[in-house]
Amino acid sequence: MSVHSITARRATDPVREARIHLAAAHRLAVLHELEEGIDNHFTVTVPGASDRYLILPFGLHWSEARASDMIVFDESGATLEGEGVVELSAQCIHAPIHRLTGARVVLHTHQTWAVALNMLKDNRLLPASQTAAFFHGHVAYDDTYMGTADFVEEGERLARLIGDKHVLFMKNHGVLVVGETVAQAYRRLYKLERVCRAQVLAMGTGKPLEVLSDEVVTQVQAPPENDRHSRAERERLYFEAMMRVLDRESPGYAD
After folding, report:
1. How many C-beta neighbours within 10 Å does residue 226 have?
2. Mean pLDDT lowest for which of 64-73, 87-96, 144-153, 233-242?
3. Class of the 11-249 domain?
């Protein structure tokens, strides 16, 4: 059975494609119950730039996100292109993380199961399943909630914490995921919620967790020599499949 790709319909203009993918990620977050209406933020560095970022303007519900809605802002919070404004915490968290880590995509949510784990005194994500093993060693932890992010210095602090990791657990707050593409970052966010849910459910039994050994985790994370698909290809195929779901369930995101 062949895999039907939407590649032929993808925009050839990288900025247009970034807008479409960002809108799709917002719609998917609603479909997967990762969002809080108009709050939390997804940002993408504008292709060809290093200090300009795409974001859904504050006030639009994520379920109505469209490519044409995305505005461009800078670290000062100024809207450079489009109509609408960037919310203060998005400016203060996302722009410094883009600048200091070099991440092209930054996704921040208060998704239910990840927040549940981050409400615990011991909030560490454990490699107790195959999927969780992929995250082992790639999660940074902010154990000191500093209140709402109203200053750029808070984003700079978080950027130093995340360093070269893929995920930041923000205790008493939420999670933040970075990536080079929307496909990569959103796949991480989606899988993260599933492993957090599984761990919280397993912990709820009151039974000890069977944590995988370092040797097994290393084997899981190593690309198989005979794998027909690179990780980048898997990320692309995943996101294109999810966009086909949106074409059925929530069309209009590419407008």
Report:
1. 5
2. 144-153
3. alpha beta
